[in-house]
Amino acid sequence: MNDNVRNLPKRSDPVLRVIPGPSDINANGHIFGGWVLGVMDQAGGIVAGRVSQGACATVAIEKMEFIAPILLRDIISVYASLERRGRTSMGIRIEVIATRERGQQEVKVTEGLFTFVALDEQHKPRPLPER
Fold first, then answer.
1. How far apart are CA 32 and CA 56, in angstroms?
2. What is this structure's pTM?
3. With contact defined as beta carbons under 8 Å apart, do 114 and 44 qualify?
4. Membrane-crossing residues (predicted)?
């Protein structure tokens, strides 16, 4: 059995849950990496917006790792949580789990650390609100 296929520990509710479509498939029959990056960025942006209590922008993707392919019939659950907090920026840990075979199998397909910066009305970095 692949190390990425296992009974995964219980975690909080996903920030996003999506199903890729046929137009998201590459020539190998897997989902495009850019598609999953976009989904991860959306989920991270939701969490970052909650933390910053306003507008924010993605400024970096660190430690991105594609672990297993995403397949056409997978249901994708995206989990995101605050990992680090600075003065104007925050690191959001994002993990993507594919559910396969009508819910019988879960596979961790990718994870990464995305950095977001809180923005003011002029689109300049601003301090994060107090906790």
1. 25
2. 0.88
3. yes
4. none
Measured CA to CA, the distance from residue 11 to residue 40 in angstroms comes to: 17
The domain spans of the chain are: 16-118
94 pairs with which residues across the strands?
Answer: 80, 112
| The two three-digit tokens of residue 46, written as one number | 């939701």
Residue pair 96/59 in contact by the 8 Å Cβ criterion: no
Cα separations in angstroms, 131 against 46, 53, 86, 107, 124: 17, 11, 12, 34, 21
pLDDT > 50? residue 1: no
B/e letters for 5-15, b = 16+ CB within 10 Å, e = fewer, are eeeeeeeeebb
Residue-wise pLDDT tens digits, 7-46 = 444 567 899 999 999 999 999 889 999 999 999 999 999 9
Beta strands, E only, 1-131: 16-18, 56-66, 75-85, 89-100, 105-118
The CATH classification number of 16-118 equals 3.10.129.10
Computed on alpha carbons and rounded to an integer, the radius of gyration of the chain in Å comes to 16
Closest CA to 127 of 53, 62, 42, 43: 53
